Amino acid sequence: MAAAPQKATNDAGDEAGGKKKKKLLLIIGLAVALVAVSIGGTVVALKMLSPAPAATDEKSAAKDEEKSPLEPAIYFDMAPNFTINFNVNGRQRYLQAAITLLYRDPALEALLKLHMPAIRNGLVMLFSGKNFDELQSTEGKETLKAEALEIINNQLKKEQQALAEKNEDDEKKSPSTVEQVLFTNFVMQ
What we know:
Blueprint: H1 3-49, H2 58-66, E1 74-88, E2 91-103, H3 108-114, H4 116-128, H5 138-166, E3 180-188
Helix pairs in contact: 4-5
C-alpha cells in the first residue's frame, strides 16, 4: 500500500515538470520569433531609408542634373486682411479674407513688398467683381484662389521683366513666382 502513494507523487511531479518545460519552450520560441521580427523590420526600414544607388545611365544623370533641390517654403502674410462689400438683393454683405502667399525664392519677398499696392489693387478688383453666392461654394473659392494666383504672378512677371530689361548685362533667368495663394481666414456675412 505504501507503493501506491509514492507512484501518485511521481506522476504529479512528472506532470508539473512537463508543464514547466512546455512553458519554457513556449517562452523561448516567442523570444526567438520577436527577435526575428525585429531584425526583419530593421532590415526593411534600412532599405527604405537608404539613398537610391547612384545613376550609371547617362540619361538618368542628365535628369538628376536638371532637377535642382526644392528650396524650403517661405510664407508671406498679406496684411491687412481684405474686406469687400457686396450688395445682394438689397442687403449689404461682406467678405473678409486673410491671404498668405507660398513661394520658394527668398529674393521674391522684396519684390512683393515693393509692388504690394499694385498686387492688392488687382486682388480687390478681382474680389469685388465676384458673385457673393459663387464664393460660398468650395469650387468658387478654388476658382478665386487660382485667379488671385494668376493676378499676383502676372504682376510679378511684368515687374521682373522690366527690371531685367533695365539691367540687360545681368544673367537672364526665369522670373520667380508665387506657388500658392492660401486663404488663412475666409469669412462671409
